[in-house]
Amino acid sequence: MKNLCVFCGSKSGASTTIYFEAAWLLGAEMAARGCSLVYGGGATGLMGAVADGVIKNGCTAIGVIPNGLFPPSFLRNDLTELHWVSSMSARKELMVKLSQGFAVLPGGLGTLDELFEVWTNRQIGVHSYPIGILNTAKYFDRLIGAIQNLNQEGFVGSEHMELVTVYATPRDLLDGLLSP
User: Is the pLDDT of residue 1 over 70?
Assistant: First the structure.
């Protein structure tokens, strides 16, 4: 895999140290494996942490950001590439186009929107790339439970549940996403 897209929060979250450490470790491990980062271009929160891990360990970071949505202080100035797009929809479209896999870390509504879009697109055959959730400190347990309920109630097939895998550590996530 050349480029891994990481969806995560531009904020720190309540458990700052745990989330930051996992995001930074993911970035560092990506760099060690020669895997470039595609992400939202932010310098803050978990976005900034994963980018730090990638960049400070000598690998490529590609940011994709909508015009006029964020203040200049939000952006990293040391990215390998920065793509400006017209909207959040265009952002997701380009991030998918540039990537061969997806990792989801703790985040808010935008992160969930990104997760569900790539999951749905995989379900309907738009792409066949792996999707992994990094369940740091059990952050996604309730969401996973809600999705399991959708499956139990017959709204999401078991074959579609298998399109996303949940991992406990950054290393496990990359082992899973990068395996043949």
Answer: no
The HSE-up count of residue 7 (CA atoms within 13 Å, CB side) is 27
pLDDT band at 73 (very low <50, low <70, confident <90, very high): confident
Tokens linked to 49: 């942490």
Question: What token pair was written down for 23?
Answer: 């995001």
Q: Which CATH number fits the domain 3-175, given the four candidates 3.40.190.170, 1.20.1270.50, 3.40.50.2300, 3.40.50.450?
A: 3.40.50.450
Burial class (CB in 10 A: 0-12, 13-18, 19+), 156: middle
Q: Distance between CA 114 and CA 116 in Å, rounded?
A: 6
Task: Identify the CA nearest to 49 among candidates 82, 81, 76.
Answer: 76
> Minimum mean pLDDT among 9-13, 40-44, 101-105, 163-167: which range?
9-13
